[in-house]
Amino acid sequence: MRSPTLGFKAGLEIHQQLDTGKLFCACPGYLRQDAGDVRVTRKLHAIAGETGEVDVAVQHEAGKEKTFVYEGYHDSTCLVELDEEPPHLISPAALDEALRVALLLNCEVYQHTQIMRKLVIDGSNTSGFQRTVVLARNGYIETSFGKVPIDTVCLEEDSARLVSEKSGKEVVYRLDRLGIPLVEIATAPTLTTPVQVKETALKLGEILRACKVKRGIGTIRQDVNISSPGHPRVEVKGFQDVAMMEQTILTEIARQQSEKQGASQVRQALPDGTTKFLRPMPGKARMYPETDLPLLYISKERLDGLKKSLPRLQHDIRQDLLKQGLSSDLVTLVLDGYVPLYTTLVKRHAVSPVLTAKLITLWTQEVGTKAHMTADERASVLTEAIYDEILEYVASGRLAEGHVKGVLKSVVEGKSVSSSLPAPGLDENALEQTIRALVAEKPGLRANAYMGLVIGKLGTGIDKKKTMDILQKVVG
Amino acid sequence: MAFIGKPGDRVRLRLAQEEVEGTVLESHEPGICLLKLGSGYNIGISADHILGGEVLGSAPVSQLPSVVRRSSGKPVIGMVITGGTIASVLDPKTGGVKPLASVEDFVQYYPALFQMVEVKVIRIPFKIASESMDSEHWKLIAQEVGNLVNDPAIQGVVVTHGTDFLHYTAAALSFMLRDLGKPVVLTYSQRSIDRPSSDAHLNLQCAARMVIDKAAGVFVVGHATESDDYCQALLGTKVRKLHSSRRDAFQPVNTVPVAKVWPDRVTYTGSFTPRHTKPCVVDAVCSDKIALVKFYPGQSPDILDYYALKYKGIIVEASGFGHLPVSESGNSWIPLLKKHIRAGFFVGCVTQTINGRVDPYVYSNGRELIDAGVVFLGDLLAETALVKLGWILGHYGWKKDLEKKMLENVAGEFSERLVC
After folding, report:
1. A60, A92, A132, B266: least CB-packed within 10 angstroms?
2. Which of residues 15-54 of A touch B (CB under 8 A)?
3. So where are chain A's domains?
4. C-beta atoms of B196 and A121 within 8 A
5. CATH 3.40.50.1170 segments of chain B
6. Any chain A CB within 8 A of the CB of B41?
7. DSSP states of A417-457 as a string?
């Protein structure tokens, strides 16, 4: 039987939010659930100018139907998102991070490039365009099936978030997402099986996660360009889950081949592995220079500096962590966003790396889940400073490893670290003396019964594991 | 190596390790060749890196679309274009900025305007940024507008203008167009029309609506808020640009807006002179021997020697109530003020707080300045005061009544009541 993927060609396009604050202003890049402080109403107009290309009158009629409402916040959005102030110079932090991605993808970086305006008339950008700049080209990544070429790496601003749409007349957007930097990676259309597409997506994901990127749902968007024999190119947008990629692509190829007359179009990936029609394939994007900003110059010195500070890829970090004695499962937990914290803490405190890893991943998650906290709430309580304090007590011998989780639990309940410490324990000799005295006083009991007596005498703060070890030794 | 091709040409450039194809764009960076790639992105290439290359094709000659024919029956207006953002567009083929220079251009970019009105005449006396203007430009605009309003077929005139010094021109027209019986509306844009979100569309439509409505006078019409819902009409002598970039940059000072303006209606919120048929007298004179000085703490009165030597008069943006250092100060301005004013030099004071009026009687400092001959100009805006001083001094024989004329309410520039 003929393979369904024979003659199949695909390319990947990945949009990943960077965790650096906004691209063209000083606003933070977080999303909000509360209603906006400011509501501004706007219309968008057709752009005339490229004579012959646009039917101005028609576009004008089409455009003026809709009213766009933008919700902004006094403390986290500014005049730039509202299109009431020219863009500030491109964020150096975002640019550096995007350049790091380009370098990790073995790309050649353009020395001079221009920030462009890509026309978007659905209202998702207050200005009517999205700012985007091509930074690098001609890269590659290594995969199990050879090199996959990277065509371009671009840096662009994310759009405003759709809140509601009233009968197609009034569309409400929130400005919190507008301007968050997105790095866009486009591979060449050289992938020939769905398995290759998936592996490439995973590999790119790994590289991105080594950089300062946002994590969680909606922070990465993956599109696949698919063409199968006899069918024009189709772009499938919005894969949230790489696990579904293979199935979705296979289903899409089958759909394409069952169509008598295929059309070039954009389709949305659905959670069940099928796709639905979104819109016809748009023509080539209309781009103009962003006249409010100077040409972007990326110096050799800047690139050399970045090359020295490139983050390490997960594969290499994994090997290191295994060498430090972490179990494979624990390594996986640390790799899920905790590498910088872990590295800092291990460097700072003379404490076992395994304990440090468990503290910031396993135990923190366990204690947080029991207290019904979200990841964000947890992170706001169990800060780096709290971990520092705990590990300092462990390093100085004031806190036994067996009590660390108890301290975490107590901190989550609102206590300070110092008031969560168990009562000053006896040193091992003193403990053993106390135990021997108790056993001599009431001989013939079982180890568990003596444990009760020890607790009765010394309080619940004792290191129970150590006590039991001594009891076993003494009672036999 | 030099550049290959001219803006608009398709070229292939040979670099050390590769060849690049694209369209040459106008570059404003010396030594950098700006190229549009097939993807639509622009990149720059250092001229030193270009080893050679060839022109693949020349710039296509752009064709203007056929002009929408103006049908009759619509109200007829005149337009005066003076430059600024509202009348400039980006040419995407070359990357440069080009001016809108004809009725056809305006029809293409502002189709909605031409659904409302018929533009009989567009006059373009010059096209410059507003910071490049001087009183000669104010006079030219006044002449052009005067000719248009005296055409019985024309209901009123829209003047498009760069924003930064628009309120100076508005004040100048207010003084120079005597017995004005029709609306003259200045408008602008803060966001260029090559972006879909431009404020120019609403501003122009509302300006045209105000021009065919019932109030006579010089007004500035533009966004009232940050939203694209309505504009406000502001008296030409009581308006100031109060924000460098927001759409609602122009706001009334010491008064209320004359009207709220939508593309299809006007609601009056302040008093106005109704239209009348008396011919407009263009009194376009202006002396440039005037200056605007902003006082700051510690400023030496020595500068008065300089100004008195070169100028006929100055407007000083003094303290809130109009104070300058007097005899109690180690830096008293009184002796030099007395000396120069006695010799015929004019010193008028306005407040640097923008809002409110100067008042010489609250503190003795003010009375000392009055005694020295300083003229307190009430709630006059500094810019309006400057223009008015130039206009008065431009008239032969008016100098002897200078103080009286400066304090006369010629074009609504004084508010007797400051609204709460």
Report:
1. A92
2. 40-52
3. 9-289, 316-420, 428-475
4. yes
5. 76-282
6. yes
7. HHHHSPSPPPPHHHHHHHHHHHHHHSTT--HHHHHHHHHHH
